[in-house]
Structure formats: structure tokens, C-alpha cells
């Protein structure tokens, strides 16, 4: 499985839609090669490092495949004219939450990255689009995007290849994982909650989330 990278995007922290709240959700395409390190792309920033960025959220990938659906829902807002509307660092066509799995390892340009979790949306998506319901629709439809941790540093630029090199957990599609841990399916999937305990590549914050759901529903 491989696909061409449509855009590599970075953003800097700035006031958010005219408010004092800082954010770096506004990402812009970068035409030159960008260094990929343990904390993400060189030149990319995060305003609140307690919930964004870090080892398990070094690089954010959002499928361009979803943009047409969002245009139909939101009435073709200008944000969707170009990649970056969801704060993504990587934009592609052909990969989505149904065919990408937790733990998938990809060659991203010359870097090696590993899928660590689906993206859990926050209120800033609604604010970014200037309308309510975007965050809720991300949760409901599983159009989440996902995060990579960086296993081997390298460089990436637009039109490089993103190539799958290893899939150790083929049963854990990101849509299924998100449904279990965020989408309200945990109560009906106790066996999956137990099985996820044995998947060490899950992001640390989601391991904590799994443990809380186990305690809540007595799954272990």
C-alpha cells in the first residue's frame, strides 16, 4: 500500500480566529523538504503541548478523501479549498480510518513513522470552521484522521511517497479503535477492551483511557 503525499503542512501559534486563545491549527503547505524528528515536523508548532504534539502525536495525517463529504455537509466553506482545514501535517488520497490500522509503519519520505492513535477532536474544530457540529460529526462518522510517532528521523516533501512497510495489528483499524475508546462502543465490546491491553503501540494517553473504560465497565 502506497500513495503520493499531496501536501506537507506546518503552522505557527497565533491568535485563534481573532480571539486571544492561541492555536496553530492553521497549517500552510511547505514546498521544500521538511525534517521529520521525534516531536514532528521542523517549523510546526503547537499552542498547548499538554494535549497536542509530543512523541505520540508528532505528525497529524488527515485524508483529503473526506473533503468532498465535508463540503456537502458544510456548504463548501473556503477552508476546504486547500489541504490543512483540519490542522493536518500530511494530506493524501487513498488512505482512511477504515484501511489504516493502529501500529501501521509507513515510510514517510525518508522517515519511518508508526500510527499511534486516531485523532480525538476538540472544540477548536467548530471554532475554526465557524460553525457548530464539526467536532460531533468527526466523532459520529469516524472521519478523524490519525497521528504518527517517529521511529526513524528523515525528511519529507510534497509528492514523496507514503508507503506501508509493516502491519502488525491488522484487526485494529482506526475506525474500530476510535469507536471503542471514544465513540461509545466500549460497553458492548468488553472483549476488545481486554484485547487492546496487549497492543503496546497504543498512545500512552489512550492506554489510560482504555484503563478507565475497563474500570467503568468491568471488562478485565
Automatic annotation (TrEMBL):
Alphabetized Gene3D superfamilies for the sequence: PK beta-barrel domain-like (2.40.33.20)
Which PANTHER family does the annotation name?
Answer: PROTEIN YIIM
SUPFAM superfamilies, per this entry?
Answer: PK beta-barrel domain-like
One Pfam family hit: MOSC
Q: Which residues form the MOSC domain?
A: 28-165
Please report the name of this protein according to its UniProt entry: MOSC domain-containing protein
Which organism is the protein's source? Sphingopyxis bauzanensis
Q: Looking at the record's lineage, which domain of life comes first?
A: Bacteria
**From the UniProt record, which GO molecular function terms apply?**
catalytic activity; molybdenum ion binding; pyridoxal phosphate binding
Task: Identify the InterPro entries for this entry.
Answer: Benzoxazolinone_Detox_Enz, MoCF_Sase_C, Pyrv_Knase-like_insert_dom_sf
Amino acid at each position: 500500500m502506497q500513495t503520493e503525499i499531496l501536501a506537507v503542512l506546518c503552522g505557527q501559534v497565533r491568535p485563534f480566529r481573532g480571539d486571544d486563545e492561541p492555536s496553530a491549527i492553521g497549517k500552510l503547505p511547505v514546498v521544500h523538504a521538511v525534517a521529520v524528528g521525534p516531536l514532528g515536523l521542523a517549523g510546526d508548532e503547537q499552542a498547548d503541548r499538554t494535549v497536542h504534539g509530543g512523541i505520540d502525536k508528532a505528525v497529524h495525517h488527515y485524508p483529503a478523501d473526506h473533503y468532498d463529504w465535508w463540503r456537502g455537509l458544510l456548504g463548501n466553506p473556503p477552508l476546504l479549498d486547500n489541504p490543512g482545514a483540519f490542522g493536518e501535517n500530511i494530506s493524501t488520497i487513498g488512505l482512511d480510518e477504515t484501511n489504516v490500522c493502529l501500529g501501521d509503519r509507513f515510510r514517510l519520505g525518508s522517515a519511518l513513522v508508526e500510527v499511534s492513535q486516531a485523532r480525538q477532536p476538540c472544540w477548536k474544530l467548530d471554532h475554526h470552521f465557524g460553525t457548530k457540529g464539526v467536532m460531533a460529526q468527526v466523532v459520529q462518522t469516524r472521519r478523524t484522521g490519525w497521528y504518527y510517532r517517529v521511529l526513524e528521523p528523515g525528511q519529507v516533501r510534497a509528492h514523496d511517497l507514503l508507503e506501508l512497510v509493516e502491519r502488525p495489528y491488522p484487526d485494529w483499524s482506526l475506525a474500530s479503535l476510535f469507536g471503542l475508546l471514544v465513540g461509545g462502543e466500549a460497553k458492548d465490546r468488553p472483549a476488545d477492551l481486554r484485547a487492546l491491553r496487549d497492543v503496546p503501540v497504543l498512545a500512552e494517553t489512550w492506554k489510560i483511557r482504555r484503563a478507565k473504560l475497563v474500570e467503568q465497565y468491568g471488562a478485565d
